[in-house]
Specification:
The chain is mostly helical and 220 residues long. It has six helices and no strands. The chain is elongated. The mean pLDDT is 79.
């Protein structure tokens, strides 16, 4: 059958804006290089004309420079047109991509809304309220259990008057502990004699003392 009717031509893919933009940018870059070469050629002719005197030779160089300048202007016009085309296609491509992203976002939001509705149907408000009531009752029961466990056993009853009397007596004992009168008595005690032991038998008051200067105890 293929030999009789031949094979159909393969379908070419539809044009792609990204590919078109790439092709236009490549052409723009090629024209930009041509403009650069023409600029270099114009500079060369300009330098030659500076060094030449007026005459047929200079006019010939001038004509060449004018021809090159016309080519440069033509290429610059083409470059500007291609740049504008590339810009327009980029804007269109950006708009198309934004619309695609918006469509994807809307579809995702629709799916999310369906999932939320499905999940909400599975949640029963009455069951949640019952669960909250059960938790509250359990917390109250736990508090009662803790209170029961912390109850004291066998504690004798004590009269508050006896406690107050004991508290007052405890204050008096603390005041006695703070008494420092014994320090005054210690300060009035006789001081330790200074110097080395003396051989005298009496001190300056006429009291008999031993070899260390201490009062002797009378024998009984």
């Amino acid at each position: 059958m293929n030999r009789i009717f031949g094979r159909g031509k393969p379908k070419t893919p539809p044009p792609n804006l990204s590919d078109c933009i790439g092709n236009v940018d490549a052409r723009t870059e090629s024209i930009e290089k041509k403009v650069g070469r023409l600029d270099a050629e114009l500079m060369k002719y300009k330098d030659q004309m500076k060094k030449m005197r007026d005459g047929p030779a200079k006019n010939m160089v001038k004509q060449k420079a004018m021809r090159v300048l016309k080519q440069k202007r033509m290429y610059e016009g083409q470059r500007d047109q291609l740049a504008q085309q590339s810009f327009n296609m980029e804007q269109a491509n950006y708009t198309i991509q934004s619309l695609k992203d918006t469509k994807t976002t809307v579809e995702a939001m629709k799916i999310g809304a369906k999932e939320m509705k499905k999940a909400y149907k599975e949640v029963k408000l009455d069951q949640i309220e019952d669960l909250q009531d059960q938790l509250e009752d359990m917390m109250e029961d736990a508090g009662e259990v803790q209170e029961a466990l912390s109850r004291s056993y066998g504690t004798p009853e004590i009269d508050e008057d006896d406690l107050e009397a004991e508290l007052d007596a405890l204050g008096d004992e603390l005041l006695l502990d703070d008494d420092s009168s014994y320090l005054d008595e210690a300060a009035e005690a006789p001081s330790i004699p200074d110097g080395i032991p003396s051989d005298s038998k009496t001190n300056k008051d006429g009291v008999l003392v031993d070899e260390f200067g201490l009062p002797q105890i009378p024998a009984t």
